[in-house]
C-alpha cells in the first residue's frame, strides 16, 4: 500500500469531468490524448472517470508531472487543474 496522499473522490471526479470537457473541446479521443502525454489509453481513461473501473475502484491519483503534461497538451495554466483539485479536496 502506498503511503502518499490520495485525491478525494470529489477531487478525482471534478478533475475527470474537466479533462472530459477539455478533450471534447479539442475533438480528440482518449487514445490521442494518452499518446500525447505518454500514458496508456486505459490509464488516461481512469483520470477521466476519476477512479479505476475494475478491482477496488480506487480514485485516480495523477502525479504533478501528469497534471503538467495535461496542462501543456490542453494549453491551459497548470494552476487551473491544481486549483480544481484543491477546491474539491474538502480541505
UniProtKB/TrEMBL annotation:
GO function term, MF aspect, one: DNA binding
Keywords (A to Z) from UniProt: DNA-binding
Gene3D superfamilies registered for this protein in UniProt: lambda repressor-like DNA-binding domains
Pfam families, A to Z: HTH_31
Ion transport as UniProt keyword: no
Residues of the HTH cro/C1-type domain: 19-81
Superkingdom field: Bacteria
Protein known as: DNA-binding transcriptional regulator, XRE-family HTH domain
